[in-house]
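Raw record, unedited: DNA helicase IV
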Amino acid sequence: MRETTVASDPVLTAERAHLAHAADCLTAMRAATSAVVDAGVDAWASERLGAARADRLRALAADPGVPPFFGRTDTGVETFHIGRRHVRDTDGTPVVIDWRAPMSRPFYQASAADPQGLVRRRRFGFAGGELTSYEDELLGVGDAASSRLLEQEIERPRSGPMRDIVATIQPEQDAIVRAPLAESICVQGAPGTGKTAVGLHRAAYLLYTHGGQLARTGVLVVGPNRAFLRYIEQVLPTLGEVDVDQTTVAELTARVPVRGTDAPGVAVLKGDARMAEVLHRALWGSITKPADDVQVPMTGRRRRVPVERLKRYVDDLRRRGRAGDDQQVLHHAAGRERLAMLLAEDARRQAEAAGGSPTDAETRRAARSPEVRAFCDAVWPARDAAELVHALLTDPAVLARAARGVLDDGEQALLLRPAGPLRGAPWTEADAVLVDEVAGLLERSAGYGHVVVDEAQDLSPMQCRAIARRLAAGSLTVLGDLAQATSPWSAADWSRTLAGLGRPETAVRPLTRGYRVPGEVLEYANRLLPAIAPGLPVATAVRRGTGSLRVRPDGPLPDVVRELAATPGSIGVVCADAAVAEVTGALVAAGLPASVLGEDGDAGLLAVVPATLAKGLEFDAVVVVDPAAIAAAEPRGLHRLYVVLTRAVSTLVVLHTGDLPELLVA
C-alpha cells in the first residue's frame, strides 16, 4: 500500500485535473437538464415531464463538500473512476462510473487472493472537496496492508446528518447491498457494523438496478422514531435517490389522533399477535345469516333470490375472508360489493332464462338498488375501523364475543377502558396499530416493491403485521441487533419477527466486524452480552484507539465536555430520560451550548440525548452519565445501556456517581 501526498507528483496532478473535468461535466449535465422544455402532448404529460426534470435536477445537484469520485480501478488495459453518480462528457464518454454499476463491483470486492481482473485499486483523500492524496493497492501481488485513507474516512468527524459510506463499503457489506431484488434479507448487525448504511445503500442500489419496476411500486424506509429518520434522511438524496418514502410505524398507522398512553402491560397485550384474531372475529362476526328471500329489480320486473342461495353466497364469501394465500384473501369491503353483484347476477340469470337479455349497465344498477343495499346493510354491514376498535375496547360484551378462547378473562379486563364517545377517545399508539389492522381487513393497503425496516428487533407482532401489509409482493431488508432489543416484546431470535413481517424464510446475514466503534469501547460494551444476548457472536472492531475509553467516578460534567470539545466533532451526552433536564441545566449554566435531542432529531454539535432516543445515532464523542441509572430505568435496561455505550466513533467517557453495573466492573 503506497500513499502519496506530494503536490508535485504527476499522478496527483493528473487526478486533480480529472476531478476538475468531472466537476465541469456534472455542471454541464445539470445545465442541459435545466434547458429541457416540459412540452408534453397535454397538460398532464407536461406536468409529469416537469416533475421528472425536477427529480433529475435534484439527483444531479452538486454538493461542494462531496467530490465527484472517491476511487479508481485499473485493469492494466483501462481505468474507471468510481463515484456517487454517473458523470459523462458532452460526447457521452463516461468520466465517472456510478458505484452501483456492475463494473464498479471489483472496487469493493477485489482482494489480493481474488483480484477480479484488477491490477490496482486507488483510493483518494480529500479535504473540503480538494483532492489532497491518493493511495494505491496492488492486487494479486500479496499487498494486503490496511488502508489509512479508508480509516481516515471512517473516523472523519461527524456533524449533522448521517453520511453515505460508498467510499468505505466492505466486501461483506457489498454482498448485502447488491443482493437481488427478489431476495429478502435480515441483517443481524452488531454496533458499528454499518447495518443501517448497508440497508439504505441497498435501497439505492435496487433503485438504480430496477428503476422502472420500483418507480411504479416504490421503496419505503421504516425507522424507529423521527429523530432517527432526521439523522438518516440525507443519505439517499446524496446518492441521487430522492423518491423514497421514509416514515415511522407510528406515522404509518396514524389513522386516529393519539392522545393517550398505555400502561406497559396493556401495550404488550395490544401488540400481541393474538389481537389480529380478535379483530378479525369482531369484523367478520358482524356478518349475519340471511333470514328471508330478496326481490331484486331487473328489466322492469322483480326477480326473487331465495334465502338458501343467499346463505350460500354469504358463506362462500366469508370463507374467502379466511383464505390461506394472502393474495387471495377477500377484504371485507370488497366482499360487501361482491355480495351485491352476486344478487344482481342471480337476477340477471333468471331474466335470461325467461328470454330477456339484461345489459351490464342494468346489472350494475340492480346491484345498487335500494332492495339490494338494504339486504347488504342488514347482512353485511359497512364498518368503520376506528368505530369497531372503540367498541371492542369499551364494550365488554363485544370484546367477550370476539376474544372467546383467544384471551382469558384477565386479559380482556386489562384491555377494557371506560365507555365514552368515539370523538375524543383516548387513543394510544398501540390502539392506532389495531385500527390500522382493521383498516387492512376492510380494504387492501397500498404495497411497496421494497421495504427497509430498521431497528426491527423492537417491533411488536402487530407492528410487524402493519409493515407486512405495505409489502404486498415485494421484498424486505430487515435491519437490527438482538442485543439492542429494548421493547417488552423483543425476542431471542429473528424467527418470530420475520414470520410477522410475512417473510419467514428470510435468510439472516450477520455483520460482526465493527468499523465505527473503537475496539476498546466495543470490548467494554461486550461485557454485557452474556446477560443480554448469550447466543450472539461477539462483535470485533477493525480499529483501535488509544485513550478512546475513559471510565471515571462522577466529576464535573462541564469540564469533561469542554475537554472533548477541544477536538472537532459532535458530542452526545447520554443520560436516563429522567435526568435530561438536570444534565442540560448543568451544561447551560456552565456556558456550554447544549440542546436536548428531541423526537424530531434536531440538536447541535453538543446534544443531550435521552437514553431512549440514542438507538441508531452516532457521535464523535459520547459521555454516558450514570450508567446504573440508565440500566435501572426500564425492564430491559441493560440492553438500553449496551445501546448507549456503543454510540461513540472516537471517544467514550463513562461518568458514574455510585457503583457501576456489576458486569462493567473490571
